Amino acid sequence: MDIIHTVSELRTRLAKELSIAFVPTMGNLHAGHIALVEEAKRHGTCLVASIFVNRLQFEPGGDFDRYPRTLEEDCRKLAAAGCHVVFAPDERELYPAAQEITLSPPLAAAQLCGDFRPGHFQGVVTVVAKLFNIVAPHAAVFGRKDYQQLFVIRELVLQMNYPVAIVGVATKREPDGLAMSSRNGYLAPGERAQAVQLGRSLRRIAELVASGRRDFDALCEEAREGLAAAGWRVDYVELRNRSRLVPPGPADRDLVVLGAAWIGRTRLIDNLEIDGP
């Protein structure tokens, strides 16, 4: 496996590859990331993963400085998973000048996480666009745990005419149902035990909607109140349709319930797709 730190070296390494599958990450890899690499094997003959903690997508006061950097261990995991190339630039390499040119995310970004993380999705679409320009992949693989991010990236590709197939992979979960996340490592033991409550609250909504309940606002409010009573600081629990990520209408059946909430100093997100009755 080649570990490459510069754009010029990466372009030289990939120049003759006929089919590139790309997995962009911020490192501190877990089994969920490795599942993305395994899926990428189905979409290209050369597997490229990037490891870059992107300052632009961290809101002011966010956890950019404390986000775990574990490059050596990450590379071991990627090599074991069959990755061919790791692109691990530093900030100066990926942003050789102050990034005054940025992309505006679609309207779907101005809600949910966009309400609570100002500038986050602008940072996401800007860095993903740069990485697509550098790697020139034929396919790129993202996890569905970051559901809104996946939606935004699909819109980026559609609206900017990138010749990249976007592949979404189901959320990888711990045995107790907690969605795998690099930020789970922030949780104290007591917080880790409580962390499953977010997913369970979403699952209850999904089960009730699938059984025929259509009082969406009431179901979400009940979940928010339950989490708050258990000591969570809730950013949102909301239902959306999957096609446009807007509040569902009476005829919508393909839905997703999404939630984001804080337990202690750690913000967790999760979602579940729902096929209505």
Account of the 3D structure:
Strand 8 (254-263) and strand 9 (266-275) form a beta hairpin. The chain has helices spanning 7-14, 31-40, 71-80, 91-94, 113-116, 120-135, 147-160, 189-194, 196-210, 216-229, and strands at 2-4, 20-25, 46-51, 85-87, 139-143, 165-169, 233-241, 254-263, 266-275. The chain is built from 10 helices and 9 strands. The chain is globular, with a radius of gyration of 19 Å. The protein has 2 domains: 2-169, Rossmann fold (3-Layer(aba) Sandwich); 182-269, Pantoate--beta-alanine Ligase, Chain: A,domain 2. The longest helix is centred in the middle third of the chain and has 16 residues, at 120-135. It has 277 residues and is α/β, with parallel strands linked by helices.
Helix and strand arrangement:
Blueprint lengths: L1 E3 L2 H8 L5 E6 L5 H10 L5 E6 L19 H10 L4 E3 L3 H4 L18 H4 L3 H16 L3 E5 L3 H14 L4 E5 L19 H6 L1 H15 L5 H14 L3 E9 L12 E10 L2 E10 L2
Parallel strand pairs: 1-4, 2-3, 2-5, 3-4, 5-6
Antiparallel strand pairs: 7-8, 8-9
Helix pairs in contact: 6-7, 9-10
Can you describe this structure in just a few lines?
The chain is of the alpha/beta class and 277 residues long. The protein has ten helices and nine strands.
